[in-house]
């Protein structure tokens, strides 16, 4: 019962279960041992079709403490956005309350094939709305960006 439940959960999670062949016991005495292998590698969203498209209101913010909290470089998922900016040379973070953390999205109208990642949350007053915030380098850029209504591709 438990084994079938685990196998069902693994199958629903898109994970392939493979019995280990490295145990030197006779087949009838061999305990169940599993290695977890993904059925396929995760697709890069530049080669995949979006799972969903949604029209959203887009605004922008910066790491200015007046637009965040007292730890502006640390978003809701706990990563260090300042270090990510140094490594990548640009911000690829969005804040959204309706997306899971780590969800990859594209906004073709604004950024073509650039992949953005949900790493932060917006104020709770935006719960239940189709609204996202783009992280930009400065408060001035965020103000200049304004507010736009665009199609969001969710991967």
Q: Would you give an account of this structure?
A:
By secondary structure, the chain is of the alpha+beta class. About 20% of the residues lie in helices and about 30% in strands. The chain has 4 helices and 8 strands.
**Average pLDDT:** 81
CA-CA gap between termini: 34 Å
Identify the strand order in the major beta sheet.
Answer: 3-7-4-6-5-8
Number of helices: 4
Structural class: alpha+beta
How large is the share of residues in beta strands?
25-35%
Categorize the overall geometry.
globular
**What is the architecture of the largest domain at the second tier of CATH?**
Beta Barrel
Largest sheet report: 6 strands, mixed, barrel
Number of extended strands: 8
Total domains: 2
Quick recap:
By secondary structure, this protein is α+β, with helices and mostly antiparallel strands. It is built from four helices and eight strands. The longest helix is centred in the first third of the chain and has 11 residues, at 2-12.
List the helices and strands and how they pair.
Elements: H1 2-12, E1 15-19, E2 34-38, E3 52-61, H2 81-88, E4 93-96, E5 104-106, H3 108-111, E6 116-120, E7 131-135, H4 139-145, E8 148-154
Parallel strand pairs: 3-7, 4-6
Antiparallel strand pairs: 1-2, 3-8, 4-7, 5-6, 5-8
């Amino acid at each position: 019962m438990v084994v079938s439940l685990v196998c069902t959960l693994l199958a629903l999670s898109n994970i392939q279960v493979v019995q280990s062949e490295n145990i030197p016991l006779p087949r009838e005495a061999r305990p169940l041992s599993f290695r977890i292998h993904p059925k396929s590698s995760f697709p890069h969203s530049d080669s995949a079709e979006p799972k969903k498209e949604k029209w959203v209101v887009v605004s922008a913010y910066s790491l200015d403490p007046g637009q965040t909290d007292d730890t502006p470089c640390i978003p809701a998922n706990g990563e260090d956005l300042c270090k990510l900016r140094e490594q990548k040379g640009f911000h690829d973070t969005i804040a959204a309350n309706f997306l899971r953390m780590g969800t990859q999205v594209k906004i073709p109208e604004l950024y073509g094939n650039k992949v953005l990642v949900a790493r932060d949350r917006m104020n709770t007053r935006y719960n239940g709305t189709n609204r996202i915030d783009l992280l930009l380098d400065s408060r001035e850029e965020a103000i200049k960006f304004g507010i736009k209504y665009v199609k969001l591709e969710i991967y």
